[in-house]
């Protein structure tokens, strides 16, 4: 069976509580993993302004799911997303054909580690900047 790499961007209504939004995303991830796919990266972009009004919404909660899946899984995932009234827009893009699953999962794990380290470094830098600002205010 040929496994491809996909990215699915989902824009969810901004008026939903975070637990509801995360439960919805986890349900989408469950569809992927339950049908022979693998989640590589879940990237929560948070609430952002839309380029134009969609269903009277000016903002949307953006979530990017990078995953490995057989081609038949994409139609099932999109069917479930389409049936959810809380989703404003979605789009799935094929990133690569016939990928080596083990290698790509390993690469994704390394990428997640690098992102986590970068986030820690940013947090430390912001903390130091806050401390320096406090020193100048004294």
The tally of helices reads 3
Q: What's the rounded overall pLDDT mean?
A: 90
In the CATH classification, which architecture of the largest domain applies? 2-Layer Sandwich
* CATH fold label of the largest domain: Alpha-Beta Plaits
> Quick one: CATH superfamily of the largest domain?
Ribosomal protein S6/Translation elongation factor EF1B
Listing every helix as H and every strand as E from the N terminus to the C terminus, the arrangement reads EHEEHEH
Molecular structure report:
This protein has 138 residues and is of the alpha+beta class. The chain folds into 2 domains: 3-99, 2-Layer Sandwich (Alpha-Beta Plaits), CATH 3.30.70.60; 100-138. The protein contains 3 helices and 4 strands; from the N terminus they run βαββαβα. It has helices at 18-34, 71-82, 101-137; strands at 3-12, 38-54, 57-70, 87-96. A 4-stranded antiparallel beta sheet has the order 2-3-1-4. The radius of gyration is 18 Å and the shape is flat.
Question: What tags apply to this protein structure?
Answer:
138 residues; Alpha-Beta Plaits
Present the secondary structure layout:
Elements: E1 3-12, H1 18-34, E2 38-54, E3 57-70, H2 71-82, E4 87-96, H3 101-137
Antiparallel strand pairs: 1-3, 1-4, 2-3
Short description:
This protein has helices at residues 18-34, 71-82, 101-137, and strands spanning 3-12, 38-54, 57-70, 87-96.
């Amino acid at each position: 069976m040929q496994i491809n790499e996909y990215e699915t961007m989902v824009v969810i209504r901004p008026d939903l509580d975070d637990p509801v939004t995360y439960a919805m995303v986890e349900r989408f991830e469950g569809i992927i993993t339950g049908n022979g796919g693998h989640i590589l990266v879940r990237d929560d972009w948070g609430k952002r302004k839309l380029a134009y009004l969609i269903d009277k919404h000016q903002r949307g909660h953006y979530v990017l799911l990078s995953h490995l899946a057989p081609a038949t899984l994409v139609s099932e995932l999109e069917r479930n997303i389409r049936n959810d009234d809380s989703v404003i827009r979605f789009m799935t893009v094929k990133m690569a054909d016939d990928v080596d699953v083990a290698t790509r999962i390993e690469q994704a794990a390394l990428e997640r580690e690098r992102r986590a380290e970068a986030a820690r470094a940013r947090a430390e830098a912001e903390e130091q900047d806050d401390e320096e600002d406090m020193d100048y205010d004294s």
